[in-house]
Amino acid sequence: MNQTPVSCIPNSSKMSKAKKVLEEAKEIKNPELDLSDKGISSFEEMPGLLNMLNITRLTLSHNKIKSIPPGLANLTNLEILNLANNHLEEIPVSLSSMPKLRILNLQINRLDSLPRGFGAFPVIEVLDLTYNNLNENTLPGNFFMMETLRALYLGDNDFEHISSDIKNLKNLQILVLRENDLIDLPKEIGELQRLRELHIQGNRLTIIPPEIGNLDMSSNKSVFKFEGNEWVTPIADQLQLGITHLMEYLRTETYRIMYHRYMTSQKPEVPPPCIDKAKKISRNR
Amino acid sequence: MFSFQSNPNASPDVPPLPLTIQSSLFKRRAQSKETGLDKDDADYDTLPNDNEEDISNSSLYLDSAVYMVRSELEQKLVMQKLDAAHQYQQRYGVTSGMSLENMLCSRCGDGFEPHEKIVNSTGELWHQTCFVCAQCFQEFRDGIFYEFEGRKYCEHDFHVLFAPCCGKCGEFIIGRVIKAMNANWHVKCFLCDMCKKELADTGFIRNAGRALCHECNAKVKADKLGKYVCHKCHGIIDDQPLRFRGEVYHPYHFNCTNCGVELDANAREVRSRPGYAANDMNELYCLRCHDKMGIPICGACRRPIEERVVTALGKHWHVEHFVCAKCEKPFFGHRHYEKKGLAYCETHYHQLFGNLCFVCNQVIAGDVFTAMNKAWCVHHFACSVCDQKMNQKTKFYEYDLKPVCKKCYEKFPQELRRRLRRQHEATPRKSPS
Ligand SMILES: [Zn+2]
Ligand SMILES: [Zn+2]
Ligand SMILES: [Zn+2]
Ligand SMILES: [Zn+2]
Ligand SMILES: [Zn+2]
Ligand SMILES: [Zn+2]
Ligand SMILES: [Zn+2]
Ligand SMILES: [Zn+2]
Q1: Is residue A132 within 8 angstroms of chain B, CB to CB?
Q2: Does A103 touch chain B (CB under 8 A)?
Q3: Mean pLDDT score, B217-234
Q4: How far apart are alpha carbons A111 and B187 in whole angstroms?
Q5: Relative to the alpha carbon of A80, which ligand is closest?
Q6: Alpha-helix residue ranges (DSSP H) falling in A132-226
Q7: How far is the CA of B319 from the centre of ligand 4 (A)?
Q8: Where do Acidic residues bias regions lie (chain B) (predicted)?
Q9: Ligand 5: distance of its center to the CA of B309 in Å?
Q10: Which of B387, B408, B416 has its CB closest to that of A131?
Q11: Burial A235-258 (b: 16+ CB within 10 A, else e)
């Protein structure tokens, strides 16, 4: 490319912004590519990007990208792919075959669903899907097969239920389900022995499976966020006293019996959805 | 030549049986047959009643506990195969000239007819009809008889009247009788309850109603105390045992192969043929001699390492003894993390010290940024939305316990920011150092 010092072509400033970064990166062989907030709406504005096989990080947050070319998966050295705050409505399944992709950030997009086979990432560690329009019916069947996941961010989505398959995420340390429409929690969360951050605030929860009491949520290395739910009185009372009290209470026979009663005869009324999601920009079309 | 002839007119003058029933031996046998062998009998003077739980109180040794058949009886229990003709020949052939008139039947005291058959037994002579069992008056089968208190009995009656029954097999006991545990036994039937070894010549110890050999008793005792039994002297090892060739011993039974000093539990077993699995070539050295030999010592078990050596934390380790200080699982070549002289697996290092970088998931060697329940290395402490590096001075917002720079936060959808603000979750804070 002949980048003349004086450009008299109008309307090229937007294009050249991204291009310039690409050129620079190519020149200095920087494997970390920052294209955040460059007004990009399409990968076509980044010629040659898909040939930069050496790059390990690609940050494209705060752009207006609507779709990702499947060929992006050819960047086989990519470890971090950040597409936060774009206009993505879908993503190609090819991404899940990227051999080194460890961190995938898709927060604040417009994803209604994930493609079939999405859960095949070989080494994924952090998956951020915060602030999209996902729910249990639009997740692919193998979603909870990503055994290598350390952190899963599903806050600000539309889940009412979470599959019991979540027990397969044996390495999960962080699970964020903040501000969904959760009506219940799978007891299998109690099997996630490494979990040390659990965010379930702002949902429609009333009771907690006793198995959650198996988690080590009262240590100073753990965080349990639970506010903004319609907890039944015994749970609310324990939460008043503190997490340690709640976790101990969940393990008691008393609670086990009570939980069984809640699950069978005395089902607590399901609270209505608490936030008006129509205003979410993820709903924009 | 003489030959035996039956004398139908012989009317033996047999004295009525002395009350053999009064014989204490008979009485004992009869009672034990009726009431079972374990019945305590006043006539049994052999075993004190032991406290079944307290072994040491009931320890009895052979000399006092194993009884032979009373010696006076035993001497008379001369089992004889009578060959009368031979005997007679032997006697009268040699002592020729002895007149028939001088010979009298030992039983009835009468003389013998010239052609009468005479029975000679242990130097005494009998009419054939007088040489019979004192109980059943029958001739002795195969010439075998038993003598007791001057009277002769056939095998059957002797057994019935005098011989004890074995507490194990129930058969009559001929020869040596072992009296123990409130019963009589064949030598071959009185065995250690655990190892089934014969106890007649080694003695036994009564332990909770069982007869045990000394070794087994020691084992039981040691088990109860949670201690070992020395493989050499069978005594309980009160202090630290010495392991050698797969057994445990009192250390003082051994001396150092090199300097000859009596060993203690710190002695080292050395494979004299390294690589050989069999340990019968192993030798023992005192700690001093061993250390001079230059064999690496495992930092965990303090024993020599003869196979693969792991060197870490400035020490040597058996591969299987180099373990996580928390979960004690061996690393087996997997990555370990060191802290204050201890090694940890990734999980526990992180759990205990929280120093794996949230982004690169590697142990943080230099400066650590800790915030929001996480840690970052200097290279990776960055805004979670734009990936821009941050430092101690950068202001950031917290969003699901992730750091968000001010610039990015301001690009968040308005309605989200409003919600976050309402939740008091997004309080700007300074990053810690
Ligand atoms: Zn007889
Ligand atoms: Zn024995
Ligand atoms: Zn010994
Ligand atoms: Zn020595
Ligand atoms: Zn060792
Ligand atoms: Zn461990
Ligand atoms: Zn890092
Ligand atoms: Zn940022």
Answers
A1: no
A2: yes
A3: 85
A4: 91
A5: 7
A6: none
A7: 27
A8: 40-51
A9: 10
A10: B416
A11: beebbeeebeebbebbeeeebeeb
Q: Are the beta carbons of B322 and B308 closer than 8 angstroms?
A: no
Contact B199, B167 (CB under 8 A): no
Whether A280 has a pLDDT exceeding 50, the answer reads yes
pLDDT tens profile B328-347: 999 987 878 888 888 988 88
Residues in chain B with CB shorter than 8 Å from the CB of A102 are 361
Q: What is the 3-state secondary structure (H, E, C) of A217-273?
A: CCCCCCEEECCCCCCCHHHHHHHHHCHHHHHHHHCCHHHHHHHHHHHCCCCCCCCCC
Sign of CA dihedral A271, A275, A278, A282: negative
- CB within 8 Å: A221 and B408: no
Burial of B249 (0-12, 13-18, 19+ CB in 10 A): buried
Ligand that comes closest to the CA of residue B248: 3
In contact, A101 and A120? CB cutoff 8 Å: no
Over residues A8-46, the pLDDT tens digits come to: 444 445 556 788 888 887 877 889 999 999 999 999 999
Can you tell me the distance from the alpha carbon of B14 to that of B138, in angstroms, rounded to the nearest whole number?
12
ipTM value of the model? 0.91
Burial class (CB in 10 A: 0-12, 13-18, 19+), A28: exposed
- In the numeric block, which tokens belong to residue B308? 């693969």
* Residue appearing with tokens 């599959």: A163
| Ligand (nearest to CA of B364) | 7
Amino acid at B383: C
A window 188-247, beta carbon within 8 A of B: 194, 196-197, 199, 201-202, 221-223, 227-228
Cβ contacts of B373 on chain A, cutoff 8 Å: 196-197, 221-223
**Alpha helices (H) in B382-426, listed in sequence order:** 406-411, 414-422
φ/ψ region of A37 (left if φ > 0, alpha if ψ in -120 to 50, else beta) reads left
pLDDT at B292: 77
Degrees, nearest 5: CA angle A215-A221-A223: 65
What residues of A are in contact with residue B384 (Cβ under 8 Å)? 105, 128
**Distance from residue A257's CA to the centre of ligand 8 (Å):** 48
Burial readout B168-199 (b: 16 or more C-beta within 10 A, e: otherwise): eeeebbbeebbbbbbbbbbbebbbbbbeeebb
Strands (E), B219-373: 228-229, 236-237, 242-244, 247-249, 268-270, 283-285, 309-312, 315-318, 337-339, 342-344, 368-371
Residue B344 distance to chain A (closest CA, Å): 16
Cβ A178–B401 below 8 Å, yes or no? no
Residues of chain B positioned with their CB less than 8 A from the CB of A150: 361
Q: How does pLDDT run across B52-103, given as a tens digit for each residue?
A: 333 332 222 222 222 223 223 333 333 333 333 334 434 443 333 456 677 8
- Does A157 lie at the interface with B, CB-CB under 8 angstroms? no
Enumerate chain B positions whose Cβ falls within 8 A of a Cβ in A: 347, 351, 354, 358-359, 361, 373, 384-388, 400-402, 408, 411-413, 415-416, 419, 423
DSSP code of A150? Answer: S
In terms of DSSP bridges, do strands A32-34 and A57-59 run parallel, antiparallel, or are they unpaired? parallel
